[in-house]
Design brief:
The chain has 13 helices and 7 strands. The protein is an alpha/beta fold. It has 3 domains: 103 residues, Ribonuclease H-like superfamily/Ribonuclease H (Nucleotidyltransferase, domain 5, 2-Layer Sandwich), CATH 3.30.420; 88 residues; 105 residues, no CATH class. It has a 5-stranded mixed sheet with strand order 3-2-1-4-5. Strands 6-7 form a two-stranded antiparallel ribbon. A hairpin with a 4-residue loop joins strand 1 and strand 2.
């Protein structure tokens, strides 16, 4: 009986070519990843944990020394707390503070750090169920901080603190949104006044030079009201025009994909603060709030609507950008993978656009951090 043997080739083109490694493209150097806030422990110094419930004119603080029970809540002004923290640090204590992020910015955080404490901010969470007081919240934060310092990293999720320059850049884009909203509010007020007292519609942008001349036939009292509104709108539009010119100047000569305007890119850069803060695609996807909600148990998996737990301004901007990308970027690789769902009807198309918004954030992160080029994503430069 004749046996047949199959010879497996163990050599490849790369192994038989001695200089194949020399033709490999050089890897693109990536910027260093920014770590999330973590505590620096000092075994030789006793610990003092502070849970802070912050208000505008006062704050409630609960302190815990070492592993003892938390002390009674104390009421401080911001200046009194900073002074007291400085005394504790001078006594040799390692002071750790935690507070919930709110509309008061990071002024108190920076003052505590300057006084020698380690300060952390977390997103607002439900601390005590249906019972909520300043004292209970401060005590709960202090206890969570103690368990977090002992090694339970699930107790707190500190947020990244932007620098003052990053805050200023972000405030420019948010001020543009504020001015646009105020102009729209004043314009709608004018429409309402004319509808109430004259029972007739106003043209779009009725305060413009061309349309304003057409309103001379209105009632004199109504016209005087519109004139005051018009002065406010023109003043706000002048500010808006100057602000937009400053924003566009930030990315004037930078390459960008077709379908993503200069203002959109500036707003995304401002809201992200620093694209290098994200370590992987999961983090940037979660920041957008476009991840699906889930209610699963056992063998049953149920995926629902998006959780909307991220930055709402970024999410809105990304969804708008996806609709433009579908028009101006037909070779976008992410959209090519979902072309069947995009053609499956209006409802499915809208859901797919939201999914593409999350993918667009990932692609923009890869592009802005130098991990890939526009061509590798299937994008055409503007």
């Amino acid at each position: 009986m004749n046996k047949t043997y199959l010879i497996k080739l163990t050599q490849t083109l790369t192994s038989v070519t001695p200089n194949a490694a020399e033709h490999k493209p050089a890897p693109i150097p990536l910027p260093p990843a920014q770590p999330l806030p973590t505590p620096v422990l000092h075994p030789d110094r006793p610990q003092l944990k502070l849970g802070l419930d912050v208000h505008l004119d006062f704050l409630m603080a609960v302190a815990q020394r070492g592993h003892l029970s938390p002390q009674a809540p104390r009421k401080f002004t911001p200046d009194q707390l900073v002074e007291q923290v400085g005394k504790w640090v001078a006594e040799g204590l390692a002071v750790y503070c935690v507070q919930e992020s709110c509309g008061f910015g990071f002024v108190l955080h920076r003052r505590l750090v300057a006084a020698g404490a380690q300060s952390f901010l977390i997103t607002p969470i439900e601390l005590n169920g249906k019972r909520k007081t300043d004292k209970l919240d401060a005590r709960a934060l202090c206890q969570r901080l103690a368990r977090w310092l002992d090694g339970n990293r699930d107790e707190l999720s500190p947020i990244r603190i932007p620098t003052l320059a990053e805050q200023h850049r972000r405030e420019g884009t948010r001020r543009r949104q504020f001015l646009t909203r105020e102009i729209r509010c004043l314009a709608n007020r004018g429409h309402g006044q004319v509808a109430e007292y004259c029972h007739q519609p106003l043209p779009h942008r009725w305060w413009g030079a061309r349309n304003w001349k057409k309103l001379a036939s209105l009632d004199a009292w109504v016209l005087s009201v519109l004139e005051k509104l018009r002065e406010l709108i023109l003043a706000l539009e002048a500010q808006l025009k100057t602000l937009e010119a400053e924003l566009v100047a930030r990315v004037k000569d930078q390459p960008r994909p077709k379908g993503l305007g200069e203002l959109s890119l500036v707003i995304l850069d401002g809201e992200m603060c620093d694209w290098n803060r994200f370590h992987n695609r999961k983090q940037i996807g979660s920041y957008t709030g476009c991840c699906p909600g889930e209610h699963s148990s056992g063998h049953q998996r149920r995926v629902g609507s998006i959780d909307r737990m991220g930055n709402g301004r970024v999410r809105t901007l990304l969804v708008e950008a996806v609709w433009r990308f579908l028009l101006w970027q037909p070779e976008w690789k992410a959209a090519q993978r979902m072309k069947v769902k995009l053609a499956a009807g209006t409802a499915m198309k809208k859901k797919t656009v939201v999914a593409l918004a999350r993918q667009l954030a990932v692609d923009l992160w890869r592009w802005r951090t130098g991990r890939c080029t526009l061509a590798e994503l299937g994008w055409v430069a503007a």
